[in-house]
Amino acid sequence: MKKQLLSSEPVGAIKSQTFRVYNLRTFFRREPGNLERCPSCGSGIISSEVEPSKKVATDMSDINAVPSHYFSRLYLCSACAWWGVRERWGLLVYEEECDYMIAGMAEQKDLAGKRESQPWRLVLENIDYLSALPLPRDWGDLFGSFRYLLNRPL
What we know:
mainly beta, 7-stranded mixed beta sheet
């Protein structure tokens, strides 16, 4: 079943890279596992670690906040132009745990060279996470184990 990545929801755009930012903490009570299937076409996902975004790097430099960077992980669909980056970090002093997913589609002309052109790089340099949306309800099943859903409507 094909999932809708692009809809009438607000979209971020940085130099022609369109994307959405989702707050995973609005959907999961505990940390979910890895994204296992593409939200756009349902195909398999290839994942790897990436350098943290500028926002996470800035938070990590504030040693008074006692920061912890858990991971910054890139997800690429094995079949379509979908890409995503999930970042999880925390600031102990503020009792803040952050878990966000940035999702985008490479332009069709960029599909073959998606890995070489790295359309997510520019987004990671400029992301602020302030406009994060709740994770779409049907995306929850695309994550691996360790998920416990909140008992409230989204």
